[in-house]
Specification:
Blueprint lengths: L4 H10 L3 E6 L5 E6 L4 E3 L3 E7 L3 H8 L2 E8 L4 E12 L2 H7 L17 E15 L2 E6 L2
Antiparallel strand pairs: 1-2, 1-5, 3-4, 4-7, 5-6, 6-7, 7-8
Length: 139
């Protein structure tokens, strides 16, 4: 099996948009475009900012199964990672990915109750390039 970590990490670091998928109350998948993750550890753990009051957060609280997708439109390649989401609301996690200017979205600052962190932990992936896809495990 090939090691996809370098290829996928490079794509993540260069993206301006990422996608996150959740499961709706009707059991169907829901997809949403988001800003890229604020932080990631290789291709295993990812941290995104979002509103605590969002539909996505309520869906993840009911069913933590999720996927994230990154793509490189220039070379037409992409990676889907599937795994589990945790919603983090502790101050340490919120401070870890807070950036100057976030008050535009969270006017009360880092302690805004409508600000939380989506932590995504990948279990496996699927990589597409050169008209072919390949599944891989993430350890």
């Amino acid at each position: 099996m090939k090691n996809f970590t370098k290829a996928v990490s490079g794509m993540i670091d260069g993206c301006t948009v990422s996608f996150i998928g959740s499961i709706g109350k009707d059991g169907f998948p829901n997809m949403k475009a988001m800003l890229p993750p604020r932080k990631h550890t290789g291709i295993k753990t990812f941290y995104f900012t979002t509103n605590t009051s969002s539909l996505r957060v309520s869906q993840f609280r009911k069913n933590p199964k999720a996927c994230i997708y990154f793509f490189d439109g220039r070379f037409y390649k992409g990676a889907m990672l599937t795994g589990i989401v945790e919603i983090l609301e502790d101050l340490k996690s919120k401070k870890m990915i807070w950036k100057e200017g976030d008050t535009m979205y969270y006017p009360l600052g880092v302690t805004d109750p409508d600000y939380c962190v989506i932590k995504f932990t990948a279990q496996k992936g699927r990589f597409y390039q050169n008209f072919a896809s390949e599944d891989f495990e993430i350890k």
